[in-house]
Description:
Blueprint: H1 3-9, H2 45-52, E1 61-64, E2 71-74, H3 77-87
Antiparallel strand pairs: 1-2
Keywords: Cell membrane, Cell wall biogenesis/degradation, Lyase, Membrane, Transmembrane, Transmembrane helix
GO molecular function, one term: lyase activity
Protein name: Endolytic transglycosylase MltG
Amino acid sequence: SDATLSYIFGDTQARHTQEQTKIDSPYNTYKYIGLPPGPISNPGSEAIEAAIYPQESNYYFFLTKPDTGEAVFAKTLDEQNLNKGKYLK
């Protein structure tokens, strides 16, 4: 994903065009090296609570399906690699 470009354009696209990577913005990390001048996002209270009190699980890996945004979890690297082959073509 291009989180800084999504911040600039106010969208949630997983990919942006080559032309969009050329926009002149201090938040454009394609054009300017290093961190942006300020935050591009902020975790909500539910995310902070989940980090403090994580749900127990045997999952160590995940990916997001590009077409649906659904998370797919895996317990092993082999499972993760299979998921990558299946969903990230």
